[in-house]
Design a protein that fits this description.
Structural class: alpha/beta
Strand order of the largest sheet: 1-2-5-9-10-11-12-13
Largest sheet: 8 strands, parallel, barrel
Number of strands: 21
Helix content: 10-25%
Strand content: 15-25%
Distance between the termini: 18 Å
Shape: globular
Length: 551
């Protein structure tokens, strides 16, 4: 298969920008849109195909922009709508696509729609949110829990009803069963598409609808494991979340979104699938067929389990079994999860050399898998999870769950641009919105840019090399038999058959390739030697790429 320019998203490398922590241009301690504009050359040099910008819309900032009070306005802390247009145009000038976050599951409780809806049960927007009467004893309609803690229902005395909030109490859920809500959301999408954005990252898509009969969730038995990535101390997963998310109706209500996007050439959607019992199955459901969404990502690579060959082989095979025409966006880090560097370093030797080798190996792996992939800002630098003292924490999830749940602040600290600069070059303010860990300074962009063997430069080379390999852009994937601790697969298209082998251990491993006709060892830097007399030598966390003879 050869992808057209409108199918660019099928193999795209996407770079996530969290605006609050990218660059602060006006020295108020908070990153902003003009700051993104200042650093687009850095993103261009990285070689990615697209950027995903987290919310910059008008918001009370109870959840740092994921509680939107106006879908069409830029919050003043980030700049203006003209600032966004400048970022959009500058990105396009650099051949970068732009995806923007759209939070369509819920709004802020300060959104005009909700302010009207909460007044009474007869106003024009009375059914725009999810309202329900209490149980006969006055308690909430169901036992559903909010992901941020406590009941998912909040009492509204003016209506004498409860409203559903799957997240913060200040984030009431929209009613996707109401056609008026669907249409106003589509109008919002048209506003941004007409401006020229290339698609949307859709927040918590699988929460869009709920069980309309309001059945209680069952309590999770002790012998039923929690979903991948779910904390054992998180009360949300004390239930099996059968009725508050992943409802069949959601697969129907997302169809108009796809239809709208398909009416614009080359536009795409990236769905976040969150908190599902089996995130891979759920993700594949949301991108199956031509009438659902384009790409999905989930927490499969964002757990703190060791990255063993058995685990990776199993994960890749499940993806191959589940995803056909839809695309998995391989994602190992976002603003919602601890830094990937810290999640896996505890399973590795203490040697800095070996940990660096692991980082390089993982970068090569995620660039070689079938589908698109996403890099969260700072992961290309190998940033570690920051420890944020309680008095400096900003994340409501972390503050409410402290100390059992430390929240998301540790992965949201500002980008370190310059080792010797004030606040690492992020801001000239007296203090950034989150502290920058001292250990991040040695990983700063200016330090790594000057070192040929740095992780940053490895990502740059890998992304450029990926674009030159037809099999990585449009090829199929087939796992091959290799002994532990290796994983291996073939990426195949009409023009190329590329052999990819990875050593997921800190020991040197030898592998016999005498039964495979390797005609050319790949020209990818650092992964092009150690092949002789039909045998490859894979050093600790080593990688081998080789082209096979046709036929």
């Amino acid at each position: 298969m050869t992808y057209s320019s409108t199918d660019w998203w099928r193999s795209a490398v996407i770079y996530q920008i969290y605006p609050r922590s990218f660059v602060d241009s006006n020295n108020d301690g908070i990153g902003d849109l003009p700051g993104i504009l200042q650093k687009l050359d850095y993103v261009e040099d990285l070689g990615v195909d697209a950027i995903w910008i987290s919310p910059f819309f008008k918001s009370p900032m109870k959840d740092f922009g994921y509680d939107i009070s106006d879908y069409r306005a830029v919050d003043p802390i980030f700049g203006t709508l003209d600032d966004f247009k400048q970022v959009l145009n500058a990105a396009h000038d650099r051949h970068l696509k732009v995806l923007i976050d759209q939070v369509w599951n819920h709004t802020s409780d300060q959104h005009p729609w909700f302010l009207e809806s909460r007044e009474n049960q007869t106003n024009p927007k009375a059914d725009w949110y999810i309202w329900a009467d209490p149980k006969p004893d006055g308690t909430p309609p169901t036992n559903w829990l909010a992901t941020f803690g406590g009941s998912a229902w909040a009492w509204e005395p003016r209506r004498q009803q409860y409203y559903l909030h799957n997240f913060l109490v200040e984030q009431p859920d929209l009613n996707w069963y109401n056609p008026e809500v669907v249409e106003v959301i589509l109008d919002t999408a048209r506003f941004w598409l007409d401006m020229g954005v290339d698609g949307f990252r859709l927040d918590v898509v699988n929460f869009f609808t709920h069980d309309r009969t309001l059945r209680d969730n069952p309590i999770r038995p002790h012998d039923v494991p929690r979903p991948a990535g779910a904390s054992q101390s998180d009360p949300f997963f004390s239930q099996i979340n059968l009725y508050n998310l992943c409802q069949p109706a959601t697969l129907e209500v997302i169809q108009p979104i796809r239809q709208l996007l398909d009416s614009y050439e080359g536009k795409t959607s990236l769905a976040e699938i969150s908190s599902a019992e089996d995130t891979l199955i759920a993700s594949s459901d949301y991108v199956r067929g031509g009438d659902r969404l384009h790409m999905a990502y989930n927490s499969s690579l964002m757990t703190d389990e060791a990255l063993t060959s058995a685990r990776v082989n199993h994960l890749i095979q499940r993806v191959e079994d589940l995803f056909h025409d839809g695309v998995l966006c391989w994602t190992a880090g976002t603003h919602d999860f601890p830094r990937l560097k810290s999640r896996w370093s505890k399973y590795q030797p203490s040697s800095a050399f070996l940990q660096n080798a692991f980082d390089h190996m993982f970068a090569a792996l995620i660039m070689s898998l079938r589908g698109s992939c996403c890099i969260y800002q700072g992961d290309e630098l190998g940033l570690t999870q920051a420890h944020i003292p309680f008095e400096k924490m900003r994340d409501p999830f972390g503050i409410q769950g402290y100390p059992k749940v430390l929240g998301r602040d540790g992965s949201r600290t500002p980008m370190p641009w310059g080792k010797e600069d004030l606040h690492a070059g992020f801001t000239q303010a007296a203090e950034p919105w989150l502290p920058i860990p001292p250990e991040h300074l040695t990983q700063a962009v200016d330090v790594q840019a000057s070192l040929p063997d740095s992780l940053l430069n490895k990502y740059r080379r890998l992304i450029a090399w990926r674009k030159e390999q037809p099999a990585l852009i449009q090829g199929s994937l087939e796992l091959i038999e290799v002994k532990e601790p290796l994983i291996g697969f073939l990426r195949t298209c009409d023009d190329q058959q590329l052999l990819c082998i990875f050593n997921l251990s800190p020991e040197t491993v030898y592998h016999d390739l005498s039964d495979m006709q390797v005609c050319q060892v790949s020209d990818e830097p650092d992964f092009a030697d150690r092949f002789y007399q039909g045998t490859i030598e894979l050093p600790p966390y080593g990688v081998f790429f080789g082209n096979l003879e046709a036929g």
